[in-house]
Amino acid sequence: MAGQVSSGAPVPPMFARVGEVVWTGGHLPRLPDGAVPAAFSDQVKLVLEKISATLESAGSGLGRLVKVNAYLSDIDNLPEFNSIYYAFLDGHPIPPRTSVEVTRFRDASMLEIEVVAHTS
After folding, report:
1. Could you tell me which residues come within 8 angstroms of residue 103 by beta carbon, excluding any fewer than 6 positions away?
2. Strand, coil or helix: what is 69?
3. CA–CA separation, 120 vs 107, rounded Å?
4. Residue 63 region by backbone torsions, left for phi larger than 0, else alpha for psi between -120 and 50, else beta
5. Cα(first)–Cα(last) distance of the chain, in Å?
6. 26-83 residue pLDDT tens
7. Which positions ≥6 away from 8 have C-beta within 8 Å?
8. How far apart, in whole angstroms, are the C-alpha atoms of residue 14 and residue 42?
9. Could you say which DSSP state residue 14 is in?
10. What is the pTM of this model?
11. At 10, is the pLDDT very low, low, confident or very high (cuts 50, 70, 90)?
12. CATH class of the 16-118 domain in this structure
């Protein structure tokens, strides 16, 4: 699961599972080639899709979310974020969520999301 990036820095795993609990690392809206979509809506959709895939690989899923932390570069994007987020979770229980504005990301990312989920 861990690898190396070109700078030689270790790449942390995308999740840790202890018993029936899964914690994900922060998911950023980067495509496999490192590019970041320009539109905020595309970034939100990409991050949520990545989280869904990570949870599936950890033996969990969106229906088993326990807590979500969302970090936005501009809190004024929260209404748009909410619209996409709630549509993405449609049919699943809505977990508690913290949404905060952060100063900046190291690239064109406008958000980062981390979650906690269970596996049973």
Report:
1. none
2. strand
3. 36
4. alpha
5. 23
6. 999 999 999 999 999 999 999 999 999 999 999 999 999 999 999 999 999 999 999 9
7. none
8. 21
9. S
10. 0.90
11. confident
12. alpha beta
